[in-house]
Design goal:
binds aspartic acid; four-stranded parallel sheet; Rossmann fold; 2 domains
């Protein structure tokens, strides 16, 4: 029987290390024990009335944009009957799934992603602590209307800003220059700031034909040519610094633009915006002048998802371009 003094929270399991254990010579692999463990986990049941949906159990490198969108649709449906939803996910692609959900979901109720850096067989488990923290955040009234949140290592982050910065440490998730929104303290959930920038693309379709290319010193145009030849609708380029590229690939960029393929420039540098600063051939100012779009501070993997959502919704590159230009870039 549910306790009327507590909030009703649904935990949706998708897999990742939080659902894994070490099985001898097989290494760390998915295990089916998490759902039953959570249903009986006193620290969770003390906080909220918990339902657990054992939705899938995959390592997050297996997650695709299609799976992300299906998950968003599931959250959209399920959250009608709950006060909040918590999703467990592998850390490798968590920021992508959380961001896609942030773009497409319309709910104002808390939607909180969490994960673990350590598997169920490791010492110093972070998974149970992160889960309790995520459920406490999902229950907190100030968590409403903040977009999709990510709770890791006692910190609350926005889906837009958070990135996995470290391959192994429990404080792997950070929000670059901006920092977390708040803390999960033992006695309270404490919000320190709000994010002024949120963006939605309310679509029930994605267009997967968006490519992401990382700039490297001495690069040539082969990847851009391949994108053009294989039917890309948009090419995201993680350029250097403020959004600069070698002049050598400008002809390939122009070839894409002539075919009405959007070319969107973001930075491979960890924090900061791209902008129309450098006027040399291939500099950010020049790229904007020939028709490239600049993506502000949004990281390449998220720009790609945003374009998938925009092309899924509008189809027409000119409409997508207009939407993009009115974003706060
Ligand atoms: N490889 C794992 C995954 O993303 C890592 C993790 O969950 O921490 O599924």
């Amino acid at each position: 029987m549910s306790d009327l003094t507590k909030k009703n929270i649904l935990i949706i399991l998708t897999g990742g290390t939080i659902s894994m254990k070490e099985k001898g010579s097989l290494g760390v692999v998915p295990s089916s024990e998490l759902a039953d463990f959570l249903r009986e986990f006193p620290q969770l049941n003390n906080v909220a009335n918990i339902d657990v949906l054992d939705y899938m159990n995959v390592p997050s490198p297996y997650i695709t944009p299609e799976i992300m969108l299906e998950l968003a649709k599931l959250i959209d449906l399920k959250i009608i009957d709950y006060d909040g939803v918590v999703i467990t996910h592998g850390t490798d692609t968590l920021e992508e799934t959380a961001f896609l959900c942030d773009l497409v979901l319309t709910t104002r109720k808390p939607v909180v992603f969490t994960a673990a850096m350590r598997s169920g067989s490791d010492i110093g488990l972070d998974g149970p602590r992160n889960l309790v923290g995520a459920v406490r955040v999902a229950c907190h009234p100030e968590s409403a209307d903040k977009g999709v949140l990510v709770v890791m290592n006692d910190e609350i982050h926005t889906a837009r800003d958070v990135t996995k910065f470290d391959t192994g440490k429990v404080d792997a998730f950070r929000s670059g220059d901006y920092g977390p929104l708040g803390s999960v303290d033992p006695d309270a959930i404490v919000y320190h700031r709000i994010s002024l920038y949120r963006e939605n693309v309310w679509t029930d379709k994605l267009d997967p034909r968006i490519d992401l290319i990382k700039a490297v010193a001495g690069m040539d145009g082969r990847y851009i040519q391949t994108s053009i030849a294989t039917g890309a609708k948009a090419i995201v380029i993680e350029a250097f610094g403020r959004g600069n590229l070698p002049s050598r690939i400008v002809p390939d960029i122009k070839a894409a633009l002539e075919k009405n393929i959007l070319v969107v420039i973001c930075s491979r540098t960890y924090t900061g915006r791209v902008l129309t600063e450098y006027g040399y051939e291939g500099g950010g100012k020049h790229l904007a002048e020939i028709g490239c779009l600049l993506a502000g501070d949004l990281k390449g993997i998220k720009v790609r998802l945003k374009l998938m959502a925009l092309f899924g919704k509008y189809g027409d590159p000119d409409v997508v371009k207009r939407f993009f230009l009115q974003s706060r870039n």
